[in-house]
Design goal:
Elements: E1 2-5, H1 11-24, E2 27-32, E3 37-42, H2 45-48, E4 59-63, E5 83-85, E6 88-90, E7 96-100, H3 107-118, E8 124-126, H4 144-156, E9 160-164, H5 171-177, E10 180-183, H6 191-198, E11 204-207, H7 214-226, E12 232-236, H8 254-261, E13 266-268, H9 270-274, H10 277-289, E14 294-298, H11 316-332
Parallel strand pairs: 7-8, 7-14, 8-9, 9-10, 10-11, 11-12, 12-13
Antiparallel strand pairs: 1-3, 1-4, 2-3, 5-6
The protein binds phosphoenolpyruvate (PEP) and manganese (II) ion.
Length: 338
């Protein structure tokens, strides 16, 4: 790291900074300018990261040189990671389309959605069984019953199934049914949960926390990768901003940033990312144009009757419309649609 010493720092302060850094375990390269001193400190940044360098009197700023993440980075692995589950690839040329209702409500509902979306580009069925809800009085999912309905519908149409895991105690039951484990926005920094999914073999779809920066997002993935799981899919789903017309502000600039920084694929969820029905088709197209490896869309056979997120759910015909447009955009950025 580079330590910039405050202009006007005394010789004693500079000496004290140097000796503290040496105590911490760094070797130093000093550059004495005419009005300020810059110290290059070399050492194992992993073990030294938490040392309180900023609080040494006379230090103006500290600039880390190494990135705080390792296993998820392009430096660690230059080529794209393509995740393969039962022959379905996520991160390759073909867009990964994940579609389904916010919550699993019945077998018939899941079957209707699976039948339609699987015939038009989607190989991954989504749906919530354990729902994190802002209000404790809102519908919070049907639990294992939902997992059964979803698995049955997915198998019938040869689809994979992705569903959210909210609690490490549910890991055995959720992984008995799901092909991909979703970590929701609210749990992106639930580090115990990240550790649990990191030390099991199923791929993890990691949604961006609603107040998570780019670095927070990458470091959450690093928590998973560090435990040995190298099947991670990032998912941008919007962040909280001052804007209230949309439910969240979809941050599409994170797509190229993640692609540059990490070898793992990234998909976009414009349903939660905007919460506004008319934004979902255009933002799906924009996500793919920006380089996303896929999209996740909420689709319900009858959104008016949905038990959660009906206002942002597309009906089956609206889903087909999105896919029709996506088939035009995808080839322009070298992607295909099944
Ligand atoms: C979901 O995908 O069902 C969900 C709750 O999304 P998020 O965690 O992004 O809010
Ligand atoms: Mn939802």
């Amino acid at each position: 790291m580079i330590i910039v010493v405050k202009p006007g720092a005394t010789a004693e302060e500079v000496d004290n900074i140097k000796s503290k850094l040496i105590d911490f375990g760094y070797t130093l390269h000093i550059s004495e300018g005419s009005d300020r001193t810059i110290i290059g400190a070399i050492g194992d940044e992993d073990t030294l990261r938490d040392k309180p360098v900023m609080s040494i009197p006379g230090v103006e700023s500290v600039i880390p040189i190494l990135k705080p993440y390792k296993f998820i980075s392009r430096e660690f692995k230059a080529e794209d990671t393509i995740i393969e589950v039962k022959g379905v690839k996520i991160g390759g040329d073909e867009l990964a389309i994940m579609a389904g209702p916010c919550s699993v409500e019945s077998y018939e509902q899941m079957r209707l959605v699976a039948e339609r979306v699987s015939s038009n580009g989607a190989k991954i069925l989504r749906g919530g069984a354990f729902k994190p809800r802002t209000s404790p009085y809102a519908f919070s999912g049907m639990g294992e019953e939902a997992l059964k309905y979803m698995r049955k519908a997915a198998d019938e149409f040869n689809m994979l199934m992705v569903t959210e895991l909210t609690d490490p105690r549910d890991l055995p039951i959720v992984s008995e049914y799901a092909d991909i484990l979703q970590i929701g926005a609210r749990n992106m920094q639930n580090f115990r949960l990240l550790k649990e999914v990191g030390s099991q073999p199923k791929p993890v779809l990691l949604k961006r926390g609603m107040a998570a920066t780019f670095n927070d997002f990458l470091l959450a993935a690093e928590h998973i990768a560090k435990e040995g799981n190298d099947n991670i899919i990032f998912c941008e789903r919007g962040i909280k901003t001052f804007e209230t017309t949309t439910r969240n502000t979809l941050d599409l600039s994170i797509v190229p940033l993640i692609k540059n920084a990490s070898h793992f694929p990234i998909i976009v969820d414009p349903s939660h990312g905007t919460g506004v029905k008319e934004c979902i088709a255009p933002m799906s197209l924009a996500s793919v144009a920006a380089g996303a490896d896929g999209i996740m869309i909420e689709v319900h056979p009858n959104p008016v009757e949905a038990l959660s997120d009906g206002d942002q759910s597309l009906d089956l015909d609206q889903y087909d419309e999105v896919m029709k447009k996506l088939r035009v955009i995808a080839p322009a950025v070298g992607k295909t649609v099944a």
